[in-house]
Amino acid sequence: MPIGNRIFLRRPLPDKALVAAFSSIPAANIADTMGRSCAMHPRIKRMSGACGIIAGPALTVKSRGGDNLMIHQALDMAQPGDILVVSNDEDSTRALMGEVMFTYAQYQRRLGGLVLDGPIRDADELRAMTLPVYATGSTPGGPHKDGPGEINVPIACGGISVAPGDIIVADGDGVIVIPLRDAPQVLEAAKKYRTQDEAKVLAARSGTQNRDWVQKRIEERHVEILDKRYC
């Protein structure tokens, strides 16, 4: 088997109802229930127009830096609602996708979104579309189409491990990854956290928020408080 240059046609997939449930919970709420260690690096940011919260199963692509051959192949394999997640050796010199590929992804494959650890091009055209796209930036420089690469294998994207079928959730804050096997447990915890967080927001707005914990933490950390000017 040519390791590093192979395509797996099968992957585990989450229940559609499970995925749909995550689409109503902010990524930050979910991340706070996962040890705050599931968020991709903020270099990967939303490049498309506002699209609310998106959630879908990961179709993973391991690309050679600046090469999109395997991304083209993955698009042809994608199912409606899939989120293409692409590693790229952290290359930032060549765009991995542009308007033609975005159009195909949106209208022919009906993808749930794209997460690229690399830049795009045709950024103005993308903002006029409804396809959610997260990437590191934009450049007019185009990609190679030679490979090698792999599809439906574990990858690293934005500093986070992503396995095929993991649930991707993204919103205006960025992208998080929920391991498939942990998803039911994470969902229940995230629902409770969302309720608690909404109550905290209301308390902050009404002035009824309990801030006693701040002074307590300051004392626990033995912070020195000086009633004088620094000079």
From TrEMBL:
PANTHER family with a match to the protein in the record: 4-HYDROXY-4-METHYL-2-OXOGLUTARATE ALDOLASE 3-RELATED
NCBIfam families: PRK06201.1
Protein name: Regulator of ribonuclease activity homolog
